[in-house]
Design a protein that fits this description.
This protein is α/β, with parallel strands linked by helices. It contains ten helices and four strands.
Length: about 190
Amino acid sequence: MVFQQLGVGDYVVSDRVAVERKTIEDLAKSVFDGRLFDQARRLSEYYEMPIIVVEGSFSELERVTSKSFQIRMALLAASIDYGVRIAYSSSPSETAKILASLARREQCESRRAVVVHRKPRFEKLWMQQLYVVQSFPGIGPRLAEKLLEKFGSIEAICKASIVELERVVGYERAKKLYQVIHARFTRSCDGNG
């Protein structure tokens, strides 16, 4: 076992498997501040089999937030949009057992090496374009491709109206995307800007 700062995920099990561990409290926070989707997107960009381990019980989730249904739906969305597998663990010791089992399966049985992936290298322009569009909040690989197919270029996406964007990504995502593209950059100390 090697300890090092990772750019993506909490644990790298092999060249194709990385794991993000979420306690119930961290899961709730990461859903509401948008980190969950960013982490899911990045895991899926760098690893073939991204996994999020949710540590704790859903009864604990209901004590942490009144929006437990939204949290469960966010996990489902991360799974569908980014191909992230979701595993559940009742405790840190059970999480350790899950990680050990994954490592044994990947490294011993499948003889796969542990590889910490760095920034992806793109051989083709279209791959770079997809990567850029996927960097927008709430936009995964599928929606990035739909946006590029509909508008033809990143420039055209940036010039699109909220109504035009909404036809591809829905109103909430369109509103957020438009805001990110068109809002004036200001560095804020209050954490809201």
